[in-house]
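Something for you to look into today, if you have time. What I am after is a single protein written out in full by you. I want to see for myself how the chain folds. Could you add the entry underneath, on a fresh line?
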Amino acid sequence: MSDGKKLKITLVRSTIGRPSDQGRAVRSLGLRKLHQSVILPDHDSIRGAVRKLSHLVTVEEVPAGQES
């Protein structure tokens, strides 16, 4: 789970034509535009949203202190 790691999540596919729950999940992660990235803590709730959106986003693990 956490261990001080963070996740860099990037939106790579559009939510146009997708079910509304997927659009809401993307917005809840803080993503609004294509190719926008956010760095979020590695929590189970974040992992669940990423799993639901795996076809729309890419994910990279970022060690703590490397969030630039």
